[in-house]
Amino acid sequence: MSWSKEFVELNKSKHDRDSFDCSEPELNLFIKTQAAKHMSAGISRTMVLPSAHPLLNQQFAICAFYTVAPSALARETLPIKHSKKLPKYPVPVFLLAQLAVHKELHGKGLGKITLIRALKYLWEVNQYMMAFAVVVDCLTDSAQSFYHKFGFEILCEHNGRTRMFLPMNTLEQLFND
Ligand SMILES: CC(C)(COP(=O)(O)OP(=O)(O)OC[C@H]1O[C@@H](n2cnc3c(N)ncnc32)[C@H](O)[C@@H]1OP(=O)(O)O)[C@@H](O)C(=O)NCCC(=O)NCCS
After folding, report:
1. Spatial CA neighbour of 139 closest among 159, 122, 155
2. 95 C-alpha to center of ligand 1: Å?
């Protein structure tokens, strides 16, 4: 399976959600049954990287996807070096709620591409509506080590998952050239 050039918004009639399998049942279920509903409800946006060529059903396979949503966190959960200049009410952040690559494409650099595209998307949103950081809630130790590799720091435990964050000013240095 080869992937196309651009991430686009998930479209139920164009993208074959049923064939997506990243080996994590929770993420598979999310893309198949919840991602489109959450977009209709206006609570998160899912961007997918379609296959370059359609399947027999004329839909495009999903090679990778990411889901983003606005969120907020308590100032006290941040390390002191980050929190000392912040006000005492919840701090706006962007939540990178989901990110996954089809298992047939693991190990080919697509996870890195997907993460960079997701961060670039959020950095662009930040030009219009600012947030302090990007946060991710890691489903597994493996996801945690993936995000750690790209500079995310551990923040706290949140709903049984490890919450990690990347300050927006780090993205500023990465993309604002
Ligand atoms: C985690 C996931 C997105 C990685 O995708 P991938 O396409 O296999 O990753 P890449 O090939 O782009 O790897 C990029 C880099 O991350 C590293 N990496 C990949 N998976 C890793 C992991 N689980 N832990 C640590 N490092 C990892 C690679 O070694 C590579 O390093 P390099 O640039 O030094 O060579 C993919 O395995 C996946 O979809 N897993 C299931 C869903 C999931 O756990 N999502 C995480 C968010 S909840």
Report:
1. 159
2. 19
Residue type, 75: R
E-strand spans in 30-118?
45-54, 60-73, 91-101
Burial of 101-110, coded b for 16+ CB within 10 Å and e otherwise, reads bbeebeeeeb
| Tokens found for residue 90 | 């919840």
> 58: CA distance to ligand 1 center in Å?
29
pLDDT at 144: 96
pLDDT digits (tens, 9 = 90+) for 105-117: 999 999 999 999 9
* Domains identified in the chain and CATH numbers: 8-175 (3.40.630.30)
Q: What is the pLDDT of residues 21-31, one digit of tens each?
A: 999 999 999 99
Residue nearest to atom 17 of ligand 1 (CA): 146
Q: How far is the CA of 145 from the centre of ligand 1 (A)?
A: 8
- State whether the beta carbon of 21 lies less than 6 angstroms from ligand 1: no
